[in-house]
Write a structure and sequence with these properties.
Pfam families: RimK, Rimk_N
Family: In the C-terminal section; belongs to the RimK family.
EC number: 6.3.2.-
Order of helices and strands: EHEEEEEHEHHEHEEHEEEEHEEHH
Mean pLDDT: 89
Largest sheet: 5 strands, antiparallel
CATH class of the largest domain: Alpha Beta
Strand content: 25-35%
Strand order of the largest sheet: 14-13-12-15-16
Helix content: 25-40%
InterPro entries: ATP-grasp, ATP-grasp_RimK-type, ATP_grasp_subdomain_1, RimK, Rimk_N, Rp_bS6_RimK/Lys_biosynth_LsyX
Distance between the termini: 11 Å
Number of helices: 9
Cofactor: Mn(2+); Mg(2+)
Shape: globular
Number of domains: 3
CATH topology of the largest domain: Rossmann fold
Length: about 300
């Protein structure tokens, strides 16, 4: 198959691994910088142009869309979809997962376990907002934050009030969430491909750090999932409409809770921790679900 990886950096581990795995399986794989794409939007013959040339018709695309380029990146994915190209993650699913508030509301609607969460624009009673999620300690998150940036732990109600007031003074959108103490600064990253958990690792935050992100000095180890954890991860991916994603879970006294669903999960940490060839599994899923693009005969490639 002829497959494109939409990525801003061809040297990133995940991008390189996907290209290597795809080519090893006999596919023709191109890496395309999303922001260098531009589109000809017509009803008769939509196309994507790149470096002054029309791109060939691909059978499938693998979007690796960073959070900072979600708007433009999903527009490019939509254009490929208009051209009859299969995307392992559809543009609408990527947009859905990037909106943290919308994601939580969709997961809640499906009855999937979540930390108790509050959201408000200008609450007249901040104390009531704090009370409704169980009081301090609690976690305050910027809606637009990534990789643990914009996530603050407030140890007391007074500290929580001050932080919320500060964020609101900056007109920032925030979530207020209960702090799951029993998780012990750890979470579980589940890699879901094609409706199955194909790999999982436990991420432990550095000493004195409640955030478990590997970018913040956390460590990763292989973990065996319970049936409930596996089902929660699969159901969360399904609720988002994602065929390839990372689902972050907290182990709580009330069962697994979903923290986030990531539509462009990194592969380095989980492949290293588990020894599994996740990149090849992505292409196996594409081969199973994608059909040859009939439009390829109508254009270049």
């Amino acid at each position: 198959m002829k497959i494109a990886i939409l990525s801003r950096n061809k040297n990133l581990y995940s991008t390189r691994r996907l290209k290597e795995a795809g080519e090893a399986l006999g596919h023709e794989v191109d890496i395309i910088d999303t922001l260098h794409c531009y589109m000809d939007i017509t009803s008769s013959r939509p196309t994507v142009r790149y470096h002054g040339k029309e791109l060939p018709k691909y059978d499938a695309v693998i979007p690796r869309i960073g959070a900072s380029v979600t708007f433009y990146g999903t527009a490019v994915v939509r254009q490929f979809e208009m051209m009859g190209t299969y995307s392992i993650n559809e543009s609408v699913a990527i947009s859905r997962s990037r909106d943290k508030l919308r994601s939580l509301q969709l997961l809640s609607r499906k009855g999937i376990g979540l930390p108790r969460t509050g959201f408000a624009s200008r609450p007249d009673k901040i104390k009531d907002l704090i009370k409704n999620v169980g009081g301090a300690p609690l976690v305050i998150k910027l809606l637009e934050g990534t990789q643990g940036i914009g996530v603050v732990l407030a140890d007391t109600n007074k500290a929580a009030e001050a932080i919320i007031e500060a964020f609101m003074g900056l007109e920032a959108n925030i979530l207020v969430q209960e702090f799951v103490k029993e998780a012990g600064g750890a979470d579980i990253r589940c890699l879901v491909v094609g409706g199955k958990v194909v790999a999982a690792m436990k991420r432990q935050g550095a000493e004195g750090e409640f955030r478990s992100n590997l970018h913040r000095g956390g460590s990763a180890t292989l973990v065996k999932l319970t049936k409930a954890e596996r089902e929660t991860a699969v159901n969360a991916a399904k609720a988002m409409g994602l065929n390839f994603c990372g689902v972050d879970l907290l182990q709580s006294s009330n069962g697994p809770m979903v923290m986030e669903v990531n539509s462009s999960p990194g592969l380095e940490g989980i492949e290293t921790a588990t020894g599994k060839d996740v990149a090849s599994m992505v292409f196996e899923s594409i081969a199973k679900n994608a059909k040859p693009n009939n439009n390829r005969t109508k254009g270049k490639g």
